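QA checklist item 7 of 12: single-chain prediction sanity check.
[x] sequence parsed
[x] length recorded as 159
[x] structure emitted
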Amino acid sequence: MSLTSLAVPREERFFEDYVPGAVYEFAETVTLSEEDITAFSRQYDPQYFHTDPVRAADSIYKGLIASGAHTISATFRLFVPNFLPGKASCGSPGLDEVRWLKPVRPGDVLRLRLTIVDAMPSRSRSDRGTVAFFAETINQKDEVVMSFKGLNIFLKRNA
């Protein structure tokens, strides 16, 4: 796997800057603390192994783990400023095959790796195209803890 950097600054990126086969691994990280995990989960996913460290110790996870919704939110905290263009982003039609592969625990440091799978010009709108990518959220042990496939629509540079 060859890692590439997005040489074009975020505000100047367009559809043409996302080349199939390119792999990006960003230096920015997110660390989830016990307080982060329990606060998020109390509000959005109140299962005991996300909210109660004492009870979680007796669960199948043998300790507190982050909600999958929290993990994907943390991933998007890395995805948006590092991968999406500032002005040329037109949103996403969706994500596929979201997989939580390993538990995320308090103190885990997460980073993001993205592989461009395809870049398809729109057949109906000549000013844009769709970029297909594969995303992996990786912890400090180099373990992939979550993955998903996604699509984003980006404007073309000179349209």
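[x] summary fact logged: The two ends are 33 Å apart (CA to CA).
[ ] second reviewer sign-off
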